[in-house]
Automatic annotation (TrEMBL):
Pfam families found in the cross-reference section: ADH_N, ADH_zinc_N
Domain of life: Eukaryota
Native organism taxonomy: Eukaryota, Metazoa, Chordata, Craniata, Vertebrata
GO molecular function: D-xylulose reductase activity; identical protein binding; L-iditol 2-dehydrogenase (NAD+) activity; NAD binding; zinc ion binding
Species the sequence originates in: Terrapene triunguis (Three-toed box turtle)
Official protein name in the record: Sorbitol dehydrogenase
InterPro entries the record matches: ADH-like_C, ADH-like_N, ADH_Zn_CS, ER, GroES-like_sf, NAD(P)-bd_dom_sf, SDH-like
One GO BP annotation of this record: D-glucuronate catabolic process to D-xylulose 5-phosphate
Compartments where located: Cell projection, Cilium, Flagellum
UniProt entry tagged with the keyword Oxidoreductase: yes
GO cellular component: cytosol; extracellular exosome; membrane; mitochondrion; motile cilium
Length: 356
């Protein structure tokens, strides 16, 4: 249990550039919620973006907001209507929980529900804190052989699953991934798990491409001064064919252009990275070659699959964690992420258990 009057240390963004560690009250779980003692929470690029800019697109911070949405913890109290979880259960948290059963929920695409609750998206608080209450239906029990950190990494892994699913990655697919940050790397892991025969990944950073090579990339290309058409030719040269699927994970205009030029006719370009609202792209090239362009918004129906995948030990995702900090050093952890050091920075929220 949370001790009476326990302090709930939380990482709170007040406005652009103003990030604070502060104590908040321990929440009481509603009838359909569970109260969790948080264990591991990863820092996402979006958390850093809210701290630096106070907004992402139309999502604007108007009141102080707790950050964090890549998380796992232990159930310490269950709401009156919760039957599938009990105190002591270790869980991974899916941060997006629909508030209404609307037409999107009815067709199983609940991530598109306009009224969805989502951790650390204004005005909804995230879970970078000691104690946090969440919709119990979106807390998934972890098997004993899956660690808390793996549980937290299911969130970025889910982006990769959703992107590869939307792209139609399957046995024998040839895949191009643009961008080797955390999301590009999970897309690489998932594409290989789904049966991709060869994966090419591109980035500006040599160290990120080194990491990509370590976790299974067949080919890497460090982008220097090449034009998007040059890049498309280089990819084709490495694969001896054009990729069936391109997964764009940077949001950079040049990469989206490369994605169109590189993808084979009849193939699919999946846009994962988000950049400016308006970009110049060779849309006619895509149109006349029947290259399908698909977007993704977060993910849906991925947690059970990700847990099975991790429990099978056929995928090693923990190598993505390069830095660990106790919750008290959250500001230092955010600075580390902002500088682009390492890949995934993990915060440890339970002072009595700092293990992975």
């Amino acid at each position: 249990m949370a001790e009476q009057g326990a302090e709930n240390l939380s990482v709170v963004v007040h406005r652009a550039g103003d990030l604070r560690l502060e104590n908040r009250s321990v929440p009481e779980p509603g009838p359909n919620e569970v109260l969790l003692r948080m264990h591991s929470v990863g820092i996402c690029g979006s958390d850093v973006h809210y701290w630096q800019n106070g907004r992402i697109g139309d999502f604007i911070i108007k009141k102080p907001m707790v950050l964090g949405h890549e998380a796992s913890g232990t159930v310490i109290k269950v709401g009156s209507s919760v039957t599938h979880l009990k105190p002591g259960d270790r869980v991974a948290i899916e941060p997006g929980a629909p508030r209404d059963i609307d037409e999107f929920c009815k067709i199983g695409r609940y991530n598109l529900s306009p009224t969805i609750f989502f951790c650390a998206t204004p005005p909804d608080d995230g879970n970078l804190c000691r104690y946090y209450a969440h919709n119990a239906s979106f807390c998934y029990k972890l098997p004993d052989n899956v660690t808390f950190e793996e549980g937290a990494l299911i969130e970025p892994l889910s982006v990769g699953i959703h992107a590869c699913r939307r792209g139609g990655v399957t046995l024998g697919s040839k895949v191009l991934i643009c961008g080797a940050g955390p999301i590009g790397l999970v897309c690489l892991l998932v594409a290989k798990m789904m049966g991709a025969a060869q994966v090419v990944i591109t980035d500006l950073s040599a160290s990120r491409l080194e990491k990509a090579k370590e976790i299974g990339a067949d080919f890497t290309i460090q982008i220097k001064k090449e034009t998007p058409k040059d890049m498309a030719c280089m990819v084709q040269g490495l694969l001896n064919c054009m990729p069936d699927i391109t997964v764009e994970c940077s949001g950079a205009e040049a990469n989206i252009q490369t994605g169109i030029y590189a993808t084979r006719s009849g193939g699919t370009l999946v846009l994962v990275g988000l950049g400016p609202e308006m970009v110049h792209v060779p849309i006619v090239n895509a149109a006349v070659r029947e290259v399908d362009i698909k977007g993704i918004f977060r993910y849906c129906n991925t947690w059970p699959m990700a847990i099975s995948m991790l429990a099978s030990k056929r995928v090693d995702i923990t190598s993505l964690v390069t830095h660990r900090f106790p919750l008290e050093k959250a500001l230092e952890a955010f600075e580390t992420t902002k500088k682009g050091l390492g890949v995934k920075v993990m915060l440890k929220c339970d002072p009595s258990d700092q293990n992975p």
